[in-house]
Specification:
Helices cover about 10% and strands about 50% of the residues. By secondary structure, it is mainly β. The chain has one domain: YmcC-like fold. It has a 16-stranded antiparallel sheet that branches.
């Protein structure tokens, strides 16, 4: 899995700076203590054997989780700025399906462009269980590099070469323990944790209330990313520790 990963997972890069020792007071100690506890919990979960029980009979044909709806014909457009560059991201929910591990997944087409040139072209696969949890079953991706080179490095599929599906959005999103978003040893090991609900924010596409906020990171890289999911829409904003910010510019519904 690449560090940048579609509308559920934008880029993750390290951008930490050491604190001044003169400001290392009790408040900071308490804060760091909580961060260490959260990190320890995440690492423990990350090292546990991971093989979720996937029963095809427990999945439904629609993905209608309020915070991650996938209605065929819907197109979302995002703009990401960071590092002095701007990219555009267009995501379309198709009417196509793909069966993975016996589960019929909805196919989502994700295209990243920069100055009109396609940088990434990806097909993502999602499905929702009957408890409302949305699962991520993998992706087929192409990244276009300098000199006409094309990389498929970020591609993976649940059930192949040890890969397992992960959770993108729980059926009842509440702050709690971290969970895996995807899993393929040494290739796709993204984690997420819901850290707040009922958030409010404004982006070019509008003002949204009651948003779910997550903290996402990779077990293979440094840094993390915050995402805000709006009810009836999905991701409306992401903000990475590297300074990259992506916002929803528009949404076109069928």
């Amino acid at each position: 899995m690449k560090t940048r990963a579609r509308f559920q997972k934008f880029g993750i890069k390290n951008h930490f700076h050491p604190r001044s020792t003169s400001k290392w007071n009790g408040f900071h100690r308490n804060r760091v203590g909580l961060l260490i506890l959260a990190l320890t919990t995440a690492l423990a979960i990350g090292r546990e054997p991971y093989k979720p029980a996937i029963d095809p009979a427990n999945f439904q044909s629609k993905v209608d989780n309020p915070y991650f709806p996938l209605v065929p014909g819907t197109t979302r457009k995002y703009e990401e700025k960071g590092g002095g560059e701007t990219t555009e991201n267009e995501i379309t929910v198709t009417s196509d399906t793909k069966e993975i591990m016996g589960v019929k997944c909805i196919v989502v087409h994700d295209v990243v462009t920069q100055k009109g040139a396609v940088k990434e072209d990806t097909w993502d696969w999602y499905a929702q269980d009957k408890q409302g949890t949305v699962w991520y079953f993998g992706e087929a991706t192409k990244e276009f590099k300098a000199g006409g080179r094309v990389s498929h490095e970020g591609s993976w599929e649940a059930g192949v070469n040890g890969a397992q599906p992960g959770i993108i959005m729980p059926g009842d999103p509440q702050p709690g323990k971290p969970f895996r978003q995807e899993y393929m040893p040494s290739k796709a090991e993204n984690m997420a944790q819901i850290i707040a609900t009922n958030e409010k924010l404004t982006v070019p596409a509008g003002t949204f209330t009651g948003c779910v906020k997550t903290k996402d990171w990779s077990m293979l890289e440094s840094g993390n990313e915050y995402k805000w999911y709006a009810k009836g829409v999905g991701v409306v904003r992401t903000q990475a520790t590297g300074g990259e910010v992506a916002t929803l510019m528009s949404i076109k519904r069928p």
